[in-house]
From TrEMBL:
Record PANTHER family: POLYPHOSPHATE:AMP PHOSPHOTRANSFERASE, POLYPHOSPHATE:AMP PHOSPHOTRANSFERASE-RELATED
Residues making up the signal peptide according to the UniProt record: none
Sequence ranges assigned to domain Polyphosphate kinase-2-related in this UniProt record: 7-221, 250-470
Alphabetized SUPFAM superfamilies for the sequence: P-loop containing nucleoside triphosphate hydrolases
Protein name according to UniProt: Phosphate--AMP phosphotransferase
Natural source organism: Macrococcus carouselicus
Lineage: Bacteria, Bacillati, Bacillota, Bacilli, Bacillales
Protein's UniProt keywords contain Coiled coil: yes
Xref: InterPro entries: P-loop_NTPase (IPR027417), PPK2-related (IPR022488)
Amino acid sequence: MTKIDETLELKVAELARQTHEAKIPVMIVFEGVTASGKSRLSNELLLALDAKYTHFYATKSPSEEDLRMPFLFPYWKNIPKKGDITLFFRSWYANLIDYKYHNLKADIFKDHHILMQEIKGFEQMLLNDGYRIIKFNVEVDEKKRQEHIQQTKENPLTRWKAQEYEKAIPADIYTEEMEYLMKETEDIAPWHTINYTERGQAVNDMYEHIIEELEKALKDKKKKEENKKVDGKFSEHFETDMFEDTEDEMSKSEYKDLLPELQQRMRELQYALYDRKIPLILVYEGMDAAGKGGNIKRVRESLDPTGYEVNAISAPTETELSYHYLWRFATQVPRTGHIEIFDRSWYGRVLVERVEGFASTEEWQRAYEEINDFEKSLEIEGAIVIKFFLVLDKEEQLERFKERQNTPEKQYKITDEDWRNREKWDIYLEASKDMIDQTSTDHAPWIIVPANNKKAARIKALRAIIERCEARLWGVKRY
């Protein structure tokens, strides 16, 4: 019988301390049929690691409430922050098999393997951001597995566990699905197969794989830091006519006539979306003082407050900076039938972070594709995603800044940073154009809203929301 090699255990612990200090987040996945040894193997690892920065998440069959959230929602919530380690006992792979075997969300997913694209995108996105994903498929001799199950049944204290085994997906179906899933995702983050028939050998094999992965992670981090560049790559002389149309005409009387009718329709649509369990996500970006807050206020003025939430996004906190930049947004998406409004959003990565040099060149350049994948996953889950970019001319912005500065109850809205941002007007426009060009898609198009006239801007946004919602609900188009 093979003994557990303590030198390997100590080496894993030492490398884990080094990845913690290097701020490398590590995700370790344990998959395998029931009673294959996953829990015993993962517990050996938990005992070897420092509990201060090690976490454990066990995937269970999704509840009704779980099914109201996106497929990857529980994993976004539980990814480790930089320097931490999370062990996933069963993972997004077992979750996909659950979805397919029990035909979950059949009204949305006609083909459950579409979720494979979400998994691939999720893993690749995290790997690009410096995460290390270590995946284990745990196998065991079938005779030994059955012996373990029988022992569990016969012990009154563990009989409940055997009952859980009986509810699990049949081993042959799980194995067949996992073989396919491993083959499809091997090129993103490789799989390591561990045979738990002999405990000591299984633990040593696990440690050896982890040592190899963590050593590589440390080398990759060092190389990445050496090659890191920060460059917004802006043109010397940028010109565009994309944002020249800043004025829509609308009289005060016309606005007063239209607004109540559109707001009432918004309330009716809110109830219809709730009834059909369709989530609605509204994103507002644009120049400072373009009227995003006032626009959002008119959208939600007549809504039922129990069915929507507004996320006013500011600079990321220290905690938020310790995760992937999409983490704070992926964990705030609405459950089915609810509305989530983002006053600024994940586009900060390609706007302010690019403009101010907070993101490296490689980070903001790859963000376009990451954002498109993120929004596509929301659309796959049945969400309506509507994005507004509010534009006003430089002279109008100056007038609004002065008004804020000279009006006591509005002074909180104007800061020194707002004035500094005006000096970067041209490069902000260039970043905005690039953003719209690269992230306006069929499933999540950008709507450019002329904002010199606040009233016209509010009406245009309301009409656009109503049109998209009515088209999804009943296939009608009014505007």
